[in-house]
Amino acid sequence: MDYALPRRSAFLLFAIVVVTWGLNWAVTKVIVHSVFPLWATAIRTAIATVALFVVQLVRRQFIIPRRGDWPVIAAIALLHMVAFSALVAFGLKFAPVGRSIVLGYTTPLWVVPGAALFLGEAITRPRLVGTALGLLGLAAMFNPFAFDWSNREAIVGSGLILLAALCWAANILYVRAHRWVSTPFQLTFWQTLLAAVVLAILAALVDGAPQINWTPALAGAFSYAGVFGTALAYWAMAMVNRSLPAATTSLGILATPVVGVVTSTLALGEAIDISLLLAMALILAGIAIGAIPAKRGSAGPDRKALAATVARP
């Protein structure tokens, strides 16, 4: 079984994961310029499935799921790995990486009202303030002076990313309510396996057989996204979640959009305007404030649920 890392090693590994996931958005943008989004997501997920199988065998974490594991396997595979990933891939065809990653990380804003409605979680003052700040950030991003409402592609791309964030939020709500049998990392292989099969079937039905002009750069992008951006990152976050407090990881992961925005500027030449910086600051501040722990004694999700929700790109 995996063991807890020393605090310094855990923070170093956490920083590597944040940078890896931040870079993964720009890599995905490059991939979907050459491959249909559904096939791009299916291939990346298949690569991750193989890599996770190897990692779990090496770490002696490979298991056959029990009956109580299958509902959460299906929920995460379909809502996050299929719906979220495919919608993001489609959205990145039309929207810049910087805008997309900020929109994608609005997910916690939608979890707050969803948790109150479906799970009976209290909307505390920090959560209310955080949600309000996040919504102000969205307003800043879509104000008519910063967003071209006559650009259909921009509207479609942003809408797809927001829909992806809602799917991720639905996944988080289910994970919070799920009664865990096996650990989140032990089930990751089965989640990616199911997602890869579903995505391949959808891609074949929608786009037909894949027509891919393989180049060393494209193969490298797929390898990075599948092995480093997915499989090894999931293992690393499982280790980090065993070694650091859940509040630390849930707040630290907010550095991912910052890395993504900086990467899109340096590697892809995307411009960063004042409205995007303001929106990112407001949304991330809102999420950080909303993540302030409730008072002791109040009901909340268990550590396994937190580990499974904060560790997703």
Helix-strand layout with pairing:
Blueprint lengths: L6 H26 L4 H22 L11 H23 L4 H8 L2 H13 L5 H17 L10 H26 L6 H24 L8 H28 L2 H7 L2 H14 L5 H17 L12 H8 L3
Helix pairs in contact: 1-9, 1-11, 2-3, 2-8, 2-9, 3-7, 3-8, 4-7, 4-11, 5-7, 6-12, 7-13
Quick tags:
mainly alpha, single chain, 313 residues
Descriptive notes:
The chain has 313 residues and is mostly helical. Helix content is 74%, strand content 0%. It is built from 13 helices and no strands. It has helices spanning 7-32, 37-58, 70-92, 97-104, 107-119, 125-141, 152-177, 184-207, 216-243, 246-252, 255-268, 274-290, 303-310. Helix 1 (7-32) crosses helix 11 (255-268), helix 4 (97-104) packs parallel to helix 7 (152-177) and helix 7 packs antiparallel against helix 13. The protein is globular and about 55 Å long. The chain starts with 6 loop residues before the first helix and ends with a helix.
Q: Short description, anyone?
A:
This protein has 13 helices and no strands. The protein is mainly α.
Alpha-beta classification: mainly alpha
The secondary-structure element order is HHHHHHHHHHHHH
Can you tell me the residue ranges where pLDDT is under 50 for at least 5 consecutive residues?
Answer: 297-303
Mean pLDDT: 89
- The amount of beta strand, in percent, is under 5%
* Major pleated sheet: none
For the secondary structure, the number of strands is: 0
Radius of gyration: 19 Å
If helices are DSSP runs of H or I spanning 4 or more residues, what is the number of helices? 13
